[in-house]
Design goal:
This protein has 692 residues and is of the alpha/beta class. Among the domains are: 106 residues, Nucleic acid-binding proteins (OB fold (Dihydrolipoamide Acetyltransferase, E2P), Beta Barrel), CATH 2.40.50; 163 residues, P-loop containing nucleotide triphosphate hydrolases (Rossmann fold), CATH 3.40.50; 157 residues, Rossmann fold, CATH 3.40.50.300. 40% of the residues lie in helices and 19% in strands. The strands form four sheets. Strands 10-11-9-12-13-8-14 form a seven-stranded parallel beta sheet, sandwiched between helices. α6 packs across α22. The structure holds adenosine-5'-diphosphate (ADP) and magnesium ion. The site of adenosine-5'-diphosphate has 17 residues, from α9. InterPro entries: ATP-dep_DNA_helicase_RecG, DEAD/DEAH_box_helicase_dom, Helicase_ATP-bd, Helicase_C-like, NA-bd_OB-fold, P-loop_NTPase, RecG/Mfd, RecG_dom3_C. This is ATP-dependent DNA helicase RecG. Keywords: ATP-binding, DNA damage, DNA recombination, DNA repair, DNA-binding, Helicase, Hydrolase, Isomerase, Nucleotide-binding.
Length: 692
Amino acid sequence: MNDKRLDTPIQYLKGVGPKLAKVLKKVGLETVEDILYFVPREYEDRTQIVPLGKVQPADFVIVKGLVASVNNQNTRGRFSVLKVRLEDRSGYIEAVWFNQPYLSGLFSHGMKLIVSGRVEMSEYSGTMQLVVREFEIDLGEDLKFVPRYPLTKGLYPKKIREIVKTAVNDYLKEIPDLLPEEIKTKYALLDIEKAIKKLHFPDNLAEVEPAHKRLAFDDFFVFQLGLLLRRKKTKKTPGIAFEIDQTNLDLFTNQLPFELTKAQQRVLSEILADMKGKHPMSRLIQGDVGSGKTIVATIAALAAIQNGYQVAIMAPTEILAQQHYTKVADFLSGQNVRVKLLTGTTQRKEQVSETAEWNLLIGTHALIEEKVQFEKLGLVIIDEQHRFGVLQRAKLKQKACLLASRRSGPAGRDFNPDIIFMTATPIPRSLAFTLYGDLDRSIIDEMPPGRTPIKTNYVPKSKRKSSYGFMRKEIEQGRQIFIVCPLVEESEKLDLKAAMEEAVRLQEDIFPDYKVGLLHGRLKGEEKERIMNEFKAGKLHILVSTTVIEVGIDIPNASVMVVEHAERFGLSQLHQLRGRIGRGVDQSYCFLFGDPKTEEAKERVKAMVESTDGFHIAEVDLRLRGPGDFLGVRQSGLPSFRVADIIKDEEILREARQAAKELLKADPTLKAEEHQLLKESIKSMYGKFLGY
Ligand code: ADP
Ligand code: MG
């Protein structure tokens, strides 16, 4: 029997034990496999060791020397400095540690140390000192490039290196090579054993990149296989083959007050082609705020309704559902279509459970949670779903299918309606492959004509007054103003208070002759609706709001968007907010108030001022914040990869997706004996994430 399993708990590894295992857990290491895939954050180049006599001030140097003296000083209060004098034949240097007095016990006279860090001139003594970043006792190992791993308290560089070495020595042979030979050859990938070995112990730095590539490839490849298999499965289940009466649809389109853009036409024809097909559609429609997704969805809905099916449109909030309802009902007013708004609020009023008399139901996501019966549900449209990951989406889909089959389906059989997901968040490609790899995608990459690009300005405190003057002029010309105050979850109450006070201040001190309204998340649905309607009707000149207006609200007459504390918003969020204005032909303005202090906040403001391109902004945002925060921490919807980094390894991701497609072409269900390991890996690596 082979007891060398990769899932062996780390504490059973030679030289570890339960105590150290606990420490290792803090850096995410629990099994032997975790160690093998533990990625060094950098490599220390020991060929660059500088003789002490030759050291010059620099951001990073690495030196070696004998401990000549150890001196721990407490200066003012709790501040302490540990100084160790290192010597070699060429000279000496003082290595210093701040506030780590406990280290002094480690060093003794004559000990050999390898130390790296920043070299600077000491303000006091005027001599050079080395501010230590990392150190270790030199045991004369002959290492040229030393991996540096993430550390934690109680875990020293040399210890983790030893642990990795043991794991590699004892378990390297146990790592299965998942990849078929052809793929390794075609994409120039190392064998798995070599990759793991070189990741930890490269003979030169040029060896690191190919090692990383192979390991990141594996991560992506297996994941993409999972996504593509799921997509294939959808494509095989029976769905509805709608009959598309193009002439009839054209009649509808031709009487719209505008012509569809090329992009809208293209996306629509992609949707209609899916609807005609006999398998269920699972398609994501991506389009920047204002690109005109609603009319595309409406036409798809109409096509389904003309086939005698019901359609459900779902939005994330009541206000948005209400707004969709108004818009869609308006578009469809000349058609023989019965539209019904169904939200928490309407449910409280009339408790609808039977829907047979309506063709089109518009509501919040609660629409599918509540006990609403559909007679013949054929198409489900889910708006602003970028907040959901693959798993949440799968659940949503499952529910939609359940709902649809309760009555509409052939008795006892699964029944799959077509599903369209819509999002206004421009998702950069690398993320889209990961998040939406199981969907077909259509992008509305063109804005309706006649829009004047929004002018965006950063307004420092000193210029506030003049910007209020500017707003006044806009109001005098009949325009309206949004003022958004941020809401940060931890202190919701305080933030709310701030927003309320701001509304009062604006009303009383700045705009006493105009009407200021306040909209926030704590208001009841009806109350929100009332305020929105007043604003829409022009009864309010200024609407102060917490971020509830973040998505979707359509007030074409609003020409100014003020964002208070703009530095507190993410870039994509700012872009979404800005998208609330600029919907007419007139010039619109976005003012970013606040005081960006960090470099990152400054970059966000700069990107907003310089660009109105949603994709560009999303790319910058993703780069600044990383994928987790970009998508919102709560449900980032992203798997955690062992080695791969969605942003940095975008190129590898593309190749892995390509390779996964090729493999599935040859073996569509991974039936072949030699692909069983891959199949199992999908489950063991991402099963939870994919909902297997
Ligand atoms: P999205 O949902 O993508 O943010 P909407 O569907 O709300 O955008 O469209 C924004 C506005 O543009 C709406 O008032 C809509 O009626 C209008 N619109 C949509 N398509 C066009 C078009 N092709 N030409 C002119 N206006 C359009
Ligand atoms: Mg919309």
